[in-house]
Design brief:
Length: 384
């Protein structure tokens, strides 16, 4: 076994006001294992605590309101019961000297009326179907055509994001990430294939980016820019997402986000769709977009990364940190395994979404030899 510990992945770095123990990010992973009323449980706390060796953890997509869910048994951050549930998670992570942000989201049209209060239609910028199915308590169901939001309603959703950011702070998180990717509401407003509005939130690129920027500014007003990140998926087609000129659209968005000097921009690489590797249709990954990100904002690369790919990305300067998703599902001690170049445990796709502790808490840690700890440099860091 190669015991190399000189990986750039394992070098400490900074992110906003935080010193990170390494450049490894645990990606936000939808696992659909929240408890009743979408409240995180002790099982969720144990799951995150197992994986707290990452330099930065990003908790799974968490709904900002009762109308923001797209998956059954997903967690929320719009009630005090949910805040209390999330405190179990943040305390468990902080007990391991981990740093954890909460990803906040509104799924928009990527939902089903079975997941909506009163079985109302899901909300969206325009009444256009995303296609596909949503997992509900009654099984997988085809998504309906959503209801287009009235202009007067949109401010309320911005405020829902603001309140969710505040509640994340109350829950003990170290920052928040806005989910502007994967065909969810924020991205739905941005692309002209999903936004056919004629008011101040539609038409021109400036108008279509307005909601994205208002939501981001709301989170910044709560947390300060250095504790806010944004996730985007410039090459995404999941959820029937299309745009006339993706590069121009994304370039404009990044230019506006640069003005805020956020903690980071989190880019999903074009080689990944959901939890599957694909043949890219667009070349809008971190390598092409890196030069557009200016100032102190760090860039995180996510999607289909391996130890070797991550090292290449970091050495080339394409990104500052690298996120891992599927590998973290089955390898809770992923930084340790990378440090020792140890074999990685395979993941079980059948247990990715929903269920019990199986495929969630039962992946065993690496059985280390007596000298492994002395060969591994994983210092403990927190805020400056």
């Amino acid at each position: 076994m190669d015991h190399t510990t000189t990986l750039k992945l394992l070098e400490p770095t900074t992110l906003g006001p935080y010193n990170l123990r390494n450049r490894i990010v645990m990606a936000p992973l939808t696992r659909m294992r929240a408890g009743a009323d979408n409240v995180p449980t002790e099982m969720n706390a144990a799951y995150y605590q197992q994986r707290a060796g990452a330099g930065l953890m990003i908790a799974e997509a968490t709904s900002i309101s009762p109308f923001g869910y797209g998956y059954v048994n997903a967690p929320g951050i719009h009630t005090w019961e949910q805040v209390i549930g999330w405190r179990k998670v943040t305390r468990a992570v902080h007990a391991e000297d981990g740093i954890i942000f909460l990803q906040i989201v509104h799924m928009g049209r990527m939902s089903h009326d079975a997941l909506q209060p009163g079985h109302l239609l899901p909300l969206a910028p325009s009444a256009l179907s995303p296609g596909g199915n949503s997992p509900t308590a009654e099984g997988s169901k085809p998504r309906p055509v959503p209801r287009a939001l009235e202009t007067a309603e949109i401010h309320g959703i911005v405020e829902d994001f603001r309140r969710a950011a505040y509640l994340a702070m109350e829950a003990g998180f170290d920052g928040v990430e806005l989910h502007g990717a994967n065909g969810y509401l924020i991205e739905q407003f941005l692309y002209d294939g999903s936004n056919r509005r004629t008011d101040i939130y539609g038409g021109s690129l400036e108008n279509r980016a307005r909601f994205f920027l208002q939501v981001t500014e709301a989170a910044v007003e709560v947390w300060g820019a250095a504790r806010v990140g944004v996730r985007i998926s410039p090459s995404n087609i999941f959820g029937n997402m299309h745009d006339t000129d993706r590069f121009y659209t994304v370039s404009y968005l990044i230019s506006q986000l640069n003005k805020l000097q956020l903690a980071y921009l989190h880019i999903i690489e074009p080689r990944i769709a959901g939890n599957t590797d694909i043949e890219p249709q667009f070349d809008l990954g971190s390598d092409r977009l890196r030069s557009l990100v200016t100032g102190t904002t760090k860039l995180i690369s996510a999607g289909g990364n391996t130890r070797e790919i991550a090292e290449h990305i970091l050495n080339e300067g394409t990104a500052d940190l690298v996120a891992f998703g599927r590998l973290y599902v089955s390898n809770p001690d992923l930084p340790m395994r990378f440090a020792l170049n140890a074999p990685l445990a395979p993941y079980d796709r059948a247990t990715f979404y929903g269920g019990s502790e199986k495929g969630y808490l039962d992946y065993p840690p690496l059985q280390q030899d007596p000298l492994a700890a002395s060969r591994t440099v994983l210092p403990s860091y927190r805020a400056v």
